[in-house]
């Protein structure tokens, strides 16, 4: 049976990165975009990184342009944007696909571990549901990533313990990450 540590990613410079390098670390794996309404999630993600990195947190930031073309820049431009606007210190990997024929194998694995369970409640959740209904009336029935800033939380043993849609409250998400360090 596959493990999270069996997967590799390509860095923006073309070099390879094995997730096995993150054994015994907590990981947040997130598909991102620079022009999305959820782009401000970079701020609390960076705060989590600063708070827990020395205790073993790694953030795997995978830019993706599959959702309304909201990450059209080059890998270098995305990196510069994140550093200048949000002062991110975690690495942005090569822009990649998270759904479809060319999706990363890592995302196929993540979605097999934690499927889509809904957007929750509240105005943002309702707006996302309405938007996706216009695009795909059956969106609830598949595990695909629905939008930018979907986060997967992986514990120190390599278990995918949660999937958090972009509408999930970032304060509550921070609490869930924090529990892995208490």
Automatic annotation (TrEMBL):
It holds the Pfam family GSHPx. The active site is at residue 36. This is Glutathione peroxidase. PROSITE patterns: GLUTATHIONE_PEROXID_3. It comes from the Bacteria. GO terms for molecular function: peroxidase activity. One of its GO terms (biological process) is cellular response to oxidative stress. Keywords: Oxidoreductase, Peroxidase. Belongs to the glutathione peroxidase family.
């Amino acid at each position: 049976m596959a493990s999270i540590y069996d997967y590799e990613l390509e860095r923006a410079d073309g070099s390879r990165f094995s997730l096995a390098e993150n054994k015994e670390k907590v990981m947040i794996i997130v598909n991102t975009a620079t022009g999305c309404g959820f782009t401000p999630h970079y701020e609390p993600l960076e705060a989590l990184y600063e708070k827990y990195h020395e205790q073993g947190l790694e953030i795997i930031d995978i830019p993706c342009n599959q959702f309304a073309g909201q990450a059209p820049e080059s890998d270098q431009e995305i990196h510069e944007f994140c550093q200048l606007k949000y002062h991110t210190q975690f690495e942005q990997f090569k822009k990649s696909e998270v759904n479809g024929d060319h999706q990363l194998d890592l995302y196929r694995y993540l979605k097999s571990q934690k499927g889509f369970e809904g957007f929750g409640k509240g105005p943002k959740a309702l707006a996302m549901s309405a938007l996706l209904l216009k695009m795909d009336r059956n969106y609830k029935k598949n595990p695909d990533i629905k939008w930018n800033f979907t986060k997967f939380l992986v514990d120190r043993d390599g278990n995918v313990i949660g999937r958090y849609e972009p509408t999930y409250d970032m304060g509550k998400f921070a609490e869930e990450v924090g529990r892995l360090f208490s």
